[in-house]
Each structure stands twice: as structure tokens, then as C-alpha cells.
């Protein structure tokens, strides 16, 4: 008998009808001879409503209490889902993160899972139950306080449980059919990806693809748990994310997996930095001490005449204020002329392990952007990704141009192949 | 430093404004030099909304999952309350029933508290926190499942915590000013009672007074925890419930504490029962096996000509169907002619320890009813209570008549006193 972990997001259980629909799908998996563990998010807008309430009561809700509040959402959805399953004549028991053995550190609102001890889940399964587990939450190891895992935490819960229970697959049910070669809202001709490697999925996730979060994919890769991303509204096969294609499927690794974009970042340029050792370190130490996460970094070539240079980096818009404040505060120590802040930027990334062995990918990427009249402001690359920063307004057109250029459009015959090695 | 347990009901924390108002009151108690433990119910209609959701998903929600669902309500209110207190500059931590050490049996939806181990609460208090505890919920001793305590469970949580923490007082905040000599919606001249003994309060509670539930008062009496019932909307003194009047208050025990009424019961008459030993036992064994709680029982004098008698008893209307079914099913074994079911009855009860030593109370009670033209159908008495069953329609008039006759009206000079002993 196989063990399957299924995760349903808030849009799949938005109301009583949704819960009943999901219950039927779960029972089907059970009838197919599987042991079934289900991770569920809060219903529809519940979390947002709770956040609203908190803000009415306090402008700065405290971490511990905020987590206590938010976890009520999953408690509601998981209990209702268990009832709906029982109503279909099958046994089900719901478990909080704490009861399910999801042990985390003590960082409220964005805790990390440090251990999973699913003894009660195992017992429930052995007794013939379907186990329903609250996503997004755990209990801290030291203080035994309720914690939440932050955005996308339910996916991470599902993968972590799948790993701890040695599941065959972790199915992530959502309101889209899977992972696409680009955001279908931007690129009408985007194609569903049948299979993608963990590595490519990680790059897509960190480049703006929102279907799976980086942390969840990273966890799955570490424990080699295949993820199947699929729609809870259709019965279709979705996207498999795993180290190798699953079963007898002959899916070849595409050269290019997809095009991701991200308009949630801003760019800060530190102008007039003395071009001497230790300056960049001083800047990024300041940023790190302010607990701001940065993405891309570029240092201009120094102008020989002045001995000064500019350093630019990108970061989430939401952390812009914090970074500016920290830099201004340390301006005397660092020594720079001025700061420029630009939140009208966008990032376009091309991801695919195939670019390691296919030369010309970078050139083709830049050509596609150039043909579309898109100006490039920053460039950053990894082994299997190229990213550029452009004006935010240019992003949709740029994504479509690149998607077409690399043969990813759904009416293309085949993905474009490049000969030789290297790029 | 004193330790105070405060309990706030759902109407006191119905919205963000209510939560902030309650937070201020709590902080005041803390500023007055007390250690403060707060037990809170779910906000306003939350519990009813959750029940609605459950019924949409399943016609017969299962006990364990139903409890998991309902406890989300207190989780929300307690977290918000803790945030609101922190926003006023005081430290607060919220605790679920389980975290607070409220250990219960495993009877879901109406569990009983079997132990309270408030170690975490004590620690939180010692660290200077205000402790906020979810009412109405606990964790089962054997299975470690979440349980709920049934109607009025938050009051019981508060009293149980007060007992375990050896509190000076358990303050029950509600939307009325205290316990009244009769229901003010029926008797405009009802008076707030300043002090009432546990015994009289127990009788009032079991006779239809809804301010405090029997179970909560019983718990307080067993551990001798004074209860102060008061309004969360005013700063007024409410009603003290304790073994003796508190402090330097010279409050004498009134002869009559109040008049309670109850229209939630029905009457079943078992007609044509053979008047021989074992018949009544057979009837009430049947009722008990069906887990139906009964209240008053009357057996008519047997008609000598037939050797048959009638037995009547009262029970909650909600259990009428169950009792009828059980009796009909066992009719061959019991042997009776027919059943009569009457749900248009009401019960009026006069409560007061003074009636033990004041003769004439019973007579005056019946005279008042007679003068009001109210017909008595059943009578039952305890040492400190007389109850009668009448037509439901007669209840308001009967309550007012009795209230006036015993000098309880707010414009009376003094309660009526009867000489001699016995009644």
C-alpha cells in the first residue's frame, strides 16, 4: 500500500462546497488503496480576515499572538474537511501542526521546520484513518509555543510530512493545472510543464514563479520527495517535480524549462562609493544587519578620474524603506555620495539546465529582448539561469518575446535546440 | 499581591472595539497590583457561524472534529485580546486550554474537567505577564485530543483555573449587571442581588436562571472560590456568590433570594401504569438508559378501581423525542396504556435558604399563584426551593405575582419576613 500526502490550498477549500469536493477526491485516493495524509490551508480569505482583525486591535501585532491567531484558520478547515470525509463513510482525524509533530524553531511568523515526529499520524493511518493535518503551523521546540511557517508554509508542511512518512509522492493541489513555461496571465501561449527537475524548479521559484515556493522545493529535493502539482478542480495530470522523470514516462529534460518574471523588487543604487577594498563589504554588512534580503548585485566600472564607483542591488520593495534607512544611518562610516531608489523595475529570468550544454542561449536571450526593444539594466546568471532587470512596463512584452524565441509557445513544434557546449 | 481570574463572555468581545475595551479593564486590574488570568470566550457569533459551517459540510458532525472546529473561536479571541493588551504596553501571553493544563475526560462536546495543571500559566504570571486562556476547551487525559466543555464551559474554565491557582476571586464579566431576583425581561422591578450563597445560586441555576450555570457554581462551592458576576460594560459592583458575604460587607442572607422560571422543559405522562412494585423503576431505567436527564417526577394516587396509575415527569424539550422513542420501544416490558407529551409547560421556582426557618413560605407562594389565577400542575420541593409547573402562557404573570408577594420588587421597603420555624 502506498502512502500519499496531498495538500489543498485555500482556494480549493474556500467554502462548504469546495470542502465537500475535496473530500471526495481524498476518499478516491484512499479507495485506490493508498494511505492518505492531507495537509490543508485555511479557507479562502480566512487568513486575510484574521490579519484585518489583528490590525484593528493593534498596529503591530506581536509574533507569538499573531501565530496563535492565524492558526485558527487551518483548525477550522481541517476539522470541516475531516467531518466531510466521515460523512462519506470513511474514517478521518484532524491534527494540528503540534499534534502532527511539526517541530520548528522559535521565529514567529516565519518559523523553520527543524524536525517532524509524526507518531500520531502514523498511528491514525495504521488504524485506517485518513489523517488531516493543519498546514502552515508547528510548535516551537524550546518553548512549546504555536508557530507559523510564513507564506507557502502549507506546501512546506506537506513536503516535510511526506519526507518524514517516506511517502511515494506529495501532491500539491491548487487552482491552476500545474507549473507553466511562463505565467499564463502574461503569456497566453504558455504550456503546462509535464516534468521539471528540482534544480530548474528551484530557479523558477526564486525568479518569480509563484506556484511552488523555493523553500518547499528545496525540502523536497533534500529528501528526494517527488512533488505533483495539479488542479483540485480537474482530474488532469499536472506537473511532476522530481530528480528524474517518474515511472515509465519518457520525458526528456527540456533545454529551457520556462521564463519567470518578478515585479516585486526595487533597485537601490549607492552612488559615489570610493573604489577601494572594504567599501562593498561595508555596504552589504549594513544591509545584512538590517535583516534585508538582497537579490542581484552589480558594481559599475570605476571612473578613473574620480576614483568613485556606483553599486546597485535589488531587493523586495517591502524592504526598501528599511534598507534606505540603514544605509543613511551608516553613511558616515561607509562614505558614499547619495542613494537612488527605483521601484519601477522588473526581472525576467530564463531557466533551464540545458543551457549548461547549449551555447548561444545567452545570445539568443539578449537578441530576443533587443528585438522587442527592451533595454537591459542589470544582468545576473547562474549555471542554469539568466536574469535581466528592465523597466517594469517592459516586462510583459519581454516575457512574451523570450517565450516565443525559445520555442516555448504552445503552437511551436519543438523547443529550439542549440548545438555545441557552453553558452 | 492578589491573583484574580476574570472571564469575559462572547458579547463582551464581540468586535475589535469590545476587545480593546476589555483589554483596558484587564490592564486596570493589573495596575491595581493583581496577578491577572483572563478566560475568554469566542467573539460574538463566531461559535454559531462555525456550527453553521459544520452543518453545511455534514449533517452529523463528529464529536472529535466538532471540538477541533469550535475551539478555533477562542483561539481567535484570546490572541486578539493578548495583542490588544500588549498594545497598551503590558505583557500578555495567550494559552489554549491544553497549554493552560485544562485536562478533561474524553466525552467530546461536553467534557468534564478532571484536573488542572496550570504550570505554564504560573510561569507566565511570575514573569510579569497577564495570562489569557481560551475558555470552553481542554485536552483529554487519555488520547490528548482537543475537547470542549459544553454550554457555559468558559465559566467553568474560569472557576477551575481560579481553584487551581488559589485565586482570591473569579470575576465573571457578562452583559448584565449581575444576578437578579428574577429575569428583568419578565419582571421590570427585579433587583440586582448584592450577595447570594452558593446553595441558593445552585438552586436558581438549576431552576432556569441563566447568568451562571449549575456546573460552574458547583465547582466554585467545592473549592470555595468567590464568584463576582458583573457587567463588562459598566464599572458597577455586581453580584457576589460565595459561602459567606465577602469583606466588611454587612449583607444579611435574604429569606428569599429570587424567583426563577424555565420554559425549556416538556412533560411526559405515562398513562395506565400497573400500580405495583418495579413499575416506576422500569420506566426510569428506560429513560436513564436513553441518557435522558429528567427533572421533576410525580406519581398520581392510584385509582383503586383499576389498579392503574399515571406517572408524569419533566425533561428538556430537546430530549422529548428520545424519551418517547425509548418508552415506546420498551412498552411491552414496562406495560402502560399510553404516553402523553406536553411541551406547553413552564416552571416557576422560589429559592431561598430562609424558607428553612420561615414557616408560611409555601402557603404564601401558592396564595400568590392562586390570586394571579394560575393553575398548578406539578409541585416539587427541596429544602431551599419550591417549584411548580404551570401552563407556559401563565409563567410571566406568575413570576411577577410571586416576586411582588415576597417583597422582592425594587420599590418594596423590605423583604417580607415570616415568624417561627419550618414552612
TrEMBL record, chains A, B:
EC number assigned by the record: 2.7.2.4
Q: In which pathway does it act?
A: Amino-acid biosynthesis; L-threonine biosynthesis; L-threonine from L-aspartate: step 1/5; Amino-acid biosynthesis; L-methionine biosynthesis via de novo pathway; L-homoserine from L-aspartate: step 1/3; Amino-acid biosynthesis; L-lysine biosynthesis via DAP pathway; (S)-tetrahydrodipicolinate from L-aspartate: step 1/4
Against SUPFAM superfamilies, the record matches this protein to:
ACT-like, Carbamate kinase-like
GO MF term set: aspartate kinase activity
Enumerate the spans annotated as ACT domain: 268-344, 350-423
Q: Which UniProt keywords apply?
A: Amino-acid biosynthesis, ATP-binding, Diaminopimelate biosynthesis, Kinase, Lysine biosynthesis, Nucleotide-binding, Transferase
Catalytic reaction annotation: L-aspartate + ATP = 4-phospho-L-aspartate + ADP
Q: Which family does it belong to?
A: Belongs to the aspartokinase family.
Explain the purpose of this protein.
Catalyzes the phosphorylation of the beta-carboxyl group of aspartic acid with ATP to yield 4-phospho-L-aspartate, which is involved in the branched biosynthetic pathway leading to the biosynthesis of amino acids lysine, threonine, isoleucine and methionine.
According to UniProt, the name of this protein is: Aspartokinase
- Source organism of the structure: Streptomyces lavenduligriseus
Query: Taxonomic lineage per UniProt?
Result: Bacteria, Bacillati, Actinomycetota, Actinomycetes, Kitasatosporales
Amino acid at each position: 500500500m502506498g502512502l500519499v500526502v496531498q495538500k489543498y490550498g485555500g482556494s480549493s477549500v474556500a467554502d462548504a462546497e469546495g470542502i465537500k469536493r475535496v473530500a471526495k477526491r481524498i476518499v478516491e485516493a484512499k479507495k485506490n488503496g493508498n494511505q492518505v495524509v492531507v495537509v490543508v490551508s485555511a479557507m479562502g480569505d480566512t487568513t486575510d480576515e484574521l490579519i484585518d482583525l489583528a490590525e484593528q486591535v493593534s498596529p503591530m501585532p506581536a509574533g507569538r499572538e499573531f501565530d496563535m491567531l492565524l492558526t485558527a484558520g487551518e483548525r477550522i478547515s481541517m476539522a470541516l474537511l475531516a467531518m466531510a470525509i466521515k460523512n462519506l463513510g470513511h474514517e478521518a482525524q484532524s491534527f494540528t501542526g503540534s499534534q502532527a509533530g511539526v517541530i520548528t524553531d522559535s521565529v514567529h511568523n516565519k518559523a523553520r521546520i527543524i524536525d517532524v515526529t509524526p507518531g500520531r499520524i502514523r498511528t491514525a493511518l495504521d488504524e485506517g484513518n485518513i489523517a488531516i493535518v493543519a498546514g502552515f503551523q508547528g510548535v516551537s521546540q524550546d518553548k512549546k509555543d504555536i508557530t507559523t511557517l510564513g507564506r507557502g508554509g502549507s506546501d512546506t508542511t506537506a513536503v516535510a510530512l511526506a519526507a518524514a512518512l517516506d511517502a511515494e509522492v506529495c501532491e500539491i493541489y491548487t487552482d491552476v493545472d500545474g507549473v507553466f513555461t511562463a505565467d499564463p496571465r502574461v503569456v497566453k501561449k504558455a504550456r503546462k510543464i509535464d516534468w521539471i527537475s528540482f534544480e530548474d524548479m528551484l530557479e523558477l521559484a526564486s525568479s518569480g514563479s509563484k506556484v511552488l515556493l523555493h523553500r518547499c522545493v528545496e525540502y523536497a529535493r533534500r529528501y528526494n520527495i517527488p512533488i505533483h502539482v495539479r488542479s483540485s478542480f480537474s482530474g488532469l495530470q499536472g506537473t511532476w517535480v522530481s530528480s528524474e522523470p517518474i515511472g515509465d514516462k519518457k520525458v526528456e529534460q527540456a533545454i529551457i524549462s520556462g521564463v519567470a518574471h518578478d515585479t516585486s523588487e526595487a533597485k537601490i543604487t549607492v552612488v559615489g562609493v570610493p573604489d577601494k577594498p572594504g567599501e562593498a563589504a561595508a555596504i552589504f554588512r549594513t544591509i545584512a544587519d538590517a535583516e534585508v534580503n538582497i537579490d542581484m548585485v552589480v558594481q559599475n566600472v570605476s571612473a578613473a578620474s574620480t576614483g568613485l564607483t556606483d553599486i546597485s542591488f535589488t531587493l523586495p520593495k517591502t524592504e526598501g524603506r528599511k534598507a534606505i534607512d540603514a544605509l543613511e544611518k551608516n553613511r558616515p562610516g561607509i562614505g558614499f555620495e547619495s542613494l537612488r531608489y527605483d521601484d519601477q523595475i522588473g526581472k525576467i529570468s530564463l531557466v533551464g539546465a540545458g543551457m549548461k550544454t547549449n551555447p548561444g542561449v545567452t545570445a539568443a536571450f539578449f537578441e530576443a529582448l533587443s528585438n522587442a526593444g527592451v533595454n537591459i539594466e542589470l544582468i545576473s546568471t547562474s549555471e542554469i539561469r539568466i536574469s535581466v532587470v528592465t523597466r517594469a512596463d517592459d516586462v510583459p512584452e519581454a516575457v512574451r518575446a523570450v517565450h516565443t524565441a525559445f520555442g516555448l509557445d504552445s503552437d511551436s513544434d519543438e523547443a529550439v535546440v542549440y548545438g555545441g557546449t557552453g553558452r
